[in-house]
Amino acid sequence: MSQTAVFQGENTHIPPKLPFAIAVLGILWVAYAASNYGGTRYVIAVAIGGLAGIGLYHAAFGFTAAWRRIVTERRGQGLRAQMILLAAACLFTFPLIDYGPPFADLGLRSGAWVLPFGVTATVGAFIFGMGMQLGGGCGSGTLFTVGGGSTRMVITLAAFITGSLIGTWHLPAWRGLPRIESFSMVREFGAPGALVVIFAITGLIWWWSRRIEVKAHGSLESPRQTGSILGGPWSHTLGIIALVVVSVATILTLGRPWGITSGFALWGAKFANIIGIDVLSWPYWSGGRARAVENSVFANSTSIMNFGIIFGAMAAASLAGKFNPILRIGWRNVATAVIGGLLMGYGARLAYGCNIGAYLGGIVSGSMHGWLWGVVAFAGSSVMAKLKIRYNW
Q: Which residues pair with residue 326 across a beta bridge?
């Protein structure tokens, strides 16, 4: 018997149609339950989450691998795809934010997250970046790989939730530290001016990643082609289109950018409350957040979108014939999953969220904190990626 095995056994043998049926029934169940709290708007939010899960899985669109590869392999295809995603999403979201009232008259929404960035957020983003490389995924990556059948990422998710809960407990102690006040490019420059800035930043990073890849390898890596719309794989281009739709549709439907990790903190608080931990006495869980702990999880818009991502990815994995959980995990994998998940959860609470809520959500809001989060998290990710190689973690 292996000394490192935690779960023994070969790959599970699941009939291909079973996970697809579970995924469809799961999305329908979540949509029905959510409709009791948010009506049609919440049903649409579940569908948006399902699209995100399908797109993330089929396009293998992760932030963790892209950041690791540019640092350790000098391959920048994933990073360039991120820059195109950011520029394309901002092309739609900036006018929505700048010219909100006309859209509101049509019953649409146009909210944004514009937040300060200081010592607390810097620490949080850095340790989140480190956790990404240890845990093997980011906020969105954890969800879609769990839906895709990754047993290891279930452990990461559990640790992510735990770290998020601990972060809500400690957050008051981090308040009051120096910070830079919020800055909105849309407010300061208007949508056209802000788009010029975004295109310049994303274009410069796109060019830089291309340059170092050509310098290291002599040519660019061949792009992945779309194999099948339903069965995958998807090209980065198709994945970008899906995630732009998700980003814009979330703002129009829920009135705020796409977020993920606040749902993890809520799940942790609900579980803690059930087992007798008085989380409602914590400052973080006061007011509206206390009601969220006491209400159904289906009353929380972030949670229902997260469920949609999981079931959407499950459907995608089954259509691709790849839903085949491996029930054999080494102790090292368990340890890195737990530590990585804890770091991501804790860091996300200090730094306004993860790669989706803080990074993507901040940038498509026109907020400078999104770019600052990205720079700091990339630094933390780079440090851990190199440490993993050096010490064979």
A: 11
226: helix, strand or coil:
coil
**Best CA proximity match to 310, nearest among 89, 164, 154:** 154
* Mean pLDDT computed over 65-78: 96
Q: Which two tokens stand for residue 290?
A: 């206390």
Six-digit token string for 45: 């939010």
Task: Output phi, psi for 16, to 5 deg.
Answer: -55, -35
User: pLDDT for 183-228, tens place per residue?
Assistant: 999 999 999 999 999 999 999 999 999 999 999 999 999 998 999 9
Specify which residues 135 forms β-bridges with.
Answer: none
The DSSP line for 306-351 is HHHHHHHHHHHHHHTT----B---BHHHHHHHHHHHHHHHHHHHHT
Q: Give the separation between CA 128 and CA 139, rounded to whole angstroms.
A: 10
Distances in Å between the Cα of 177 and the Cα atoms of 21, 262, 369 are 50, 22, 16
Dihedral sign for Cα atoms in the order 229, 233, 235, 237: positive
Structure token pair of residue 294: 């006491």
How is residue 205 written in tokens?
A: 């990073």
Q: How far is CA 263 from the centre of its chain?
A: 11
Report the DSSP beta bridge partners of residue 17: none
Tokens of 386: 């190199």
5 backbone dihedrals φ, ψ, rounded to 5°: -75, 135
What's the Cα-to-Cα distance from 89 to each of 1, 243, 273, 279, rounded to whole Å?
51, 8, 38, 37
For residue 1, what pLDDT is reported? 29
The torsion angles phi and psi of 135, rounded to 5 degrees, stand at: -75, -25
List the Cα angle 33/38/43 in 5-degree steps. 60
Residue 10 token pair: 């070969």
Tokens of residue 385, six digits: 């990626």
Please tell me the distance from the alpha carbon of residue 164 to that of residue 284, in angstroms, as a whole number: 12
Report whether pLDDT(327) > 80: no
pLDDT band per the 50, 70, 90 thresholds, residue 101: low
Distances (CA, A) of 193 to 6, 93, 185, 197, 330: 55, 14, 8, 7, 51
Beta partners for 117?
180
pLDDT at residue 22 greater than cutoff 50: yes
